[in-house]
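Weekly modeling sync, notes
Attendees: S.R. (lead), two postdocs, one rotation student

Agenda item 3: backlog of single-chain predictions. S.R. asked that every request posted to the team notebook include the full sequence so nobody has to chase files. The rotation student volunteered to paste the first one in as an example of the format we agreed on. Action items at the bottom.

Example entry:
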Amino acid sequence: MKLSNFFAIISVFVATFAMAQTRQINLQITCMQPYCGGARPSAEMLAEAQKPKPFANKTIIIVSAKGKADSVKTNTNGELVLKLKKGNYKIYESWRYYKKAAGGLKIADFDKECLKNEWKKEIKEIVVSKKEFKVIDKNVIVEDCPWNLPCILESAKPPASD
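Predicted structure, as returned to the notebook:
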């Protein structure tokens, strides 16, 4: 009986120690969505396009300083709840991390050298220490209009809505 109590106490200690090694981090990922409509936008429409929107229901890639990657999906409000160990982490849009083309288009429709620079752009950096964490904003996510995607070749651009 005493041996089982000893193991129960050890189990609680190990679980507590393991949880103390990670920090819970709540953050919101936002994006900008420029006006892409066909009609001349009103001042209100342009003002609305300048406001950050939740990056809702999107896959985000988290990469540790050691190169270990994990993915997580934002909720409808663009929020993430992460449990991270002490260290540095970078957060990427999935298309950038997986070295794909923006907008789900064919990579052949983009300037490859330009894309290499785009793929390096992380959204945020998170620095987790024993007592606190810091979130550093790096690059704004912009959900561009199809004719204005970064690095798209002129010959691949769909017609713009005028």
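Discussion: group reviewed the output briefly. The two ends are 80 Å apart (CA to CA).
Action items: rotation student to repeat for the remaining queue; S.R. to check formatting next week.
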